[in-house]
Request: fold
Amino acid sequence: MIQQKVEVRFEKSEALRFISHHDLMRAFQRAVRRAGLPIRLTEGFNPRPRIVFPVALEVGVASLDEAAEIELVQCMTTQEVARRLSSTLPPGLVLRTIKELPPSRTAQTPLRLLYRLHLQAAGIPVAAPDVQKLLDAKTLPFARLREKRTQDVDLRPALLEASLEPSGDLLIAVRPSPKGSARPLELLSVLLRTPLEELKSVRVTKLRMDLSPLPT
Reply:
């Protein structure tokens, strides 16, 4: 039975940007076990710690703002959870904050993801009028490769914001959905009219993840 639920906010550094979401989950599971947290386990033959990530971080993306919800069977102070967990997280995962959530509520829903595309470092110039054209477009067709087939998708519903920084880097905010979302490099591919494969060297950092508000 859930006695307590906490939200952990953390960073995933550049050094770990190529690990998969499953590897990230396993790293957290090992960390909470080593920390000795009274974690609630899943049922079945292979019980696992109940840790919920609101959205999976794609491979190749670093993040300054990731979240995980952890269910506990005993109440602890957030300070004690932070002390134990920060000492067991592997290098490259940095604990930022921990706050308590209502124990009976469902997982929070991601509403907005903000990314920086490091165009200056990649030597890719983008003009502000082209960014505005991206925002003004009614549709943004994209051919997404899915294993052995191509899926035609419209990226426009997922695009919330796009702007250029003085440095020349591009900020993009997207709206996640259960059916998926627009990836930052997919939107850059449409913006530049350049194949996605030619943009794989562009570094992407998630700056912020906004979640659904807590009930009042």
